[in-house]
C-alpha cells in the first residue's frame, strides 16, 4: 500500500512537471558557446581555451584584420552568400604585424638556463588545446572579442536569407569582458556549478603541481577552483579560484591586472544591444471643436508666399524709417551750427 502511494505521488509530480509552462526565450537559440542569464545577457560556459584562440590566429592568417573588421560591419544582416565573403577575403592581405602582436608570449628557460621572451609553448603544443589560454594581454583579449562578434554575425547573416528569419536571432550584439558587477551576478546564478576547493592537503599539493587544468566538459557552465583566475573589464582580475595561492586561494576577491601571467585567463560575456527606434513627431492641427484640419500642400505653399512678401515690405518700411531719422538728425545739427555761427 505504501509503495502504491509513493508511485502515485511520483506520477502526479511528473504530470505537473510536464504540464508546467516552459519559459519562453526571445531568440531561437542561445548565442554560440554561452549560457543564458537573460534574453540580453549571456556568459561563456568555460574560459576561452587554447584551441579557441588558435581559431582566431588562423583567421588572421586568412586575412582577418582590423580593416576587415570595419568592412564586416557594412555587410548585410541577412542573405549573405559565400561569394561576398570570398571577395572580402581576397580584398585584404595577411597582416603579419597584427598576427605577431596577437601571439601570446612568456619567458621561457632553455637548456643553457638562458631566459628568452618568446611565443608561449601552450599555443604550440596540441596537448594544451583544451586548457584555458594564459599569458594573454588586455589588447589581445579585446581583439579576440571583436573577431568572435564578427564571426557570429556572419554566421547569422549566412543561414538566414530573409529579414523575418534573421530576427529570430539577435540583430546586434557584442562579445566582451564582464564587469565586476556582472561577474558577481554570474557566480550567484551558477553557484552550484562552481567546483569548490578541496581542503585535503594531498589534493592541494596535487593541484599546485598540476597548475592549469583542462576543461573537458564544455556543455554546461563550469568554474573550476583548481584553475586560472579570470580577467574582467577595466583591468580587474577575479581571484580566489586559481591554482596560484598568492591571493588567498578559495576566497573570491578582486585585484588589479598588472601583466600577462600563467595563472590568469579570461572568458567572454555577450550583450545583446537593443535596436534604436526612431521617433517621428507628427503635428496635427485641430479646430476649436477638436476636429482635425487637413491642409493641402498647395494651400500651404500659397500661404507661405504672402508671408515672405509681408516680411519684405516690413523690411523696406524699417529702412525708410531709418533714413528719415538720419535726415532729421543732420538737419537739426546744421541748424545748431548756424545758431552758434559755425560752418
Record keyword descriptors for this entry.
single chain; 42% helix; 343 residues; alpha+beta
Describe the structure.
- The protein has 343 residues and is α+β, with helices and mostly antiparallel strands.
- The protein has helices at residues 2-19, 50-61, 66-72, 82-91, 96-102, 138-159, 163-166, 180-189, 201-210, 297-339, and strands at 34-38, 41-44, 105-109, 115-119, 173-176, 194-195, 223-224, 229-232, 236-239, 253-256, 264-265, 269-272.
- The chain has ten helices and twelve strands.
- The strands form four sheets. It has a four-stranded antiparallel sheet with strand order 1-2-12-5. It has a four-stranded mixed sheet with strand order 10-9-8-11, with no helix packed on it. It has a two-stranded antiparallel ribbon with strand order 3-4.
- Strand 8 and strand 9 (236-239) form a beta hairpin.
- The longest helix has 43 residues, at 297-339.
- It starts with a helix and ends with a helix.
- Mean pLDDT is 77; it is low at 6-22, 197-210 and 299-303.
Oligomer: single chain
Radius of gyration: 35 Å
Q: Give the overall shape, derived from the CA principal axes.
A: elongated
Number of helices: 10
**What structural category do the secondary elements indicate?**
alpha+beta
Highest-level CATH class? Alpha Beta
CATH architectural label: Alpha-Beta Complex
Distance between the termini: 136 Å
Unreliable spans are: 6-22, 197-210, 299-303
Instruction: Please provide the ordered H/E string of secondary-structure elements.
Output: HEEHHHHEEHHEHEHEEEEEEH
Task: Write out the strand line-up for the largest beta sheet, numbering strands in chain order.
Answer: 1-2-12-5
The total beta strand count reads 12
Average pLDDT, all residues: 77
The proportion of residues in beta strands is 5-15%
Amino acid at each position: 500500500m505504501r509503495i502504491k502511494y509513493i508511485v502515485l505521488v511520483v506520477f502526479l509530480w511528473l504530470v505537473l512537471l510536464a504540464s508546467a509552462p516552459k519559459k519562453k526565450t526571445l531568440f531561437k537559440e542561445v548565442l554560440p558557446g554561452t549560457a543564458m542569464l537573460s534574453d540580453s545577457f549571456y556568459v561563456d560556459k568555460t574560459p576561452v581555451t587554447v584551441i579557441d584562440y588558435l581559431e582566431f590566429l588562423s583567421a588572421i592568417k586568412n586575412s582577418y584584420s582590423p580593416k576587415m573588421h570595419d568592412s564586416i560591419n557594412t555587410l548585410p544582416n541577412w542573405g549573405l552568400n559565400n561569394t561576398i565573403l570570398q571577395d572580402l577575403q581576397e580584398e585584404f592581405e595577411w597582416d603579419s604585424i597584427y598576427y605577431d602582436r596577437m601571439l601570446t608570449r612568456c619567458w621561457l628557460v632553455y637548456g643553457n638556463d638562458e631566459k628568452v621572451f618568446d611565443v608561449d609553448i601552450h599555443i604550440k603544443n596540441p596537448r594544451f588545446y583544451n586548457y584555458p589560454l594564459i599569458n594573454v594581454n588586455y589588447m589581445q583579449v579585446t581583439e579576440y572579442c571583436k573577431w568572435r562578434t564578427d564571426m557570429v554575425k556572419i554566421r547569422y547573416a549566412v543561414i538566414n536569407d530573409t529579414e523575418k528569419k534573421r530576427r529570430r536571432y539577435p540583430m546586434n550584439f557584442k562579445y566582451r569582458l564582464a564587469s565586476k558587477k556582472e561577474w558577481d551576478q554570474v557566480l550567484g546564478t551558477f553557484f552550484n556549478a562552481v567546483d569548490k576547493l578541496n581542503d585535503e592537503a594531498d589534493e592541494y599539493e596535487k593541484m599546485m603541481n598540476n597548475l592549469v587544468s583542462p576543461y573537458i566538459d564544455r556543455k554546461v557552465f563550469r568554474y573550476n577552483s583548481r584553475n586560472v583566475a579570470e580577467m574582467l573589464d577595466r583591468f580587474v582580475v577575479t581571484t580566489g579560484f586559481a591554482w596560484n595561492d598568492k591571493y588567498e586561494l578559495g576566497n573570491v576577491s578582486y585585484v588589479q591586472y598588472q601583466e600577462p601571467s600563467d595563472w590568469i585567463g579570461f572568458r567572454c560575456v555577450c550583450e545583446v544591444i537593443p535596436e534604436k527606434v526612431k521617433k517621428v513627431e507628427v503635428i496635427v492641427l485641430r479646430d476649436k471643436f477638436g476636429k482635425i484640419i487637413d491642409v493641402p500642400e498647395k494651400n500651404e505653399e500659397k500661404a507661405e508666399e504672402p508671408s515672405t512678401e509681408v516680411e519684405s515690405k516690413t523690411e523696406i518700411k524699417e529702412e525708410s524709417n531709418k533714413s528719415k531719422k538720419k535726415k532729421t538728425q543732420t538737419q537739426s545739427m546744421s541748424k545748431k551750427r548756424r545758431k552758434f555761427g559755425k560752418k
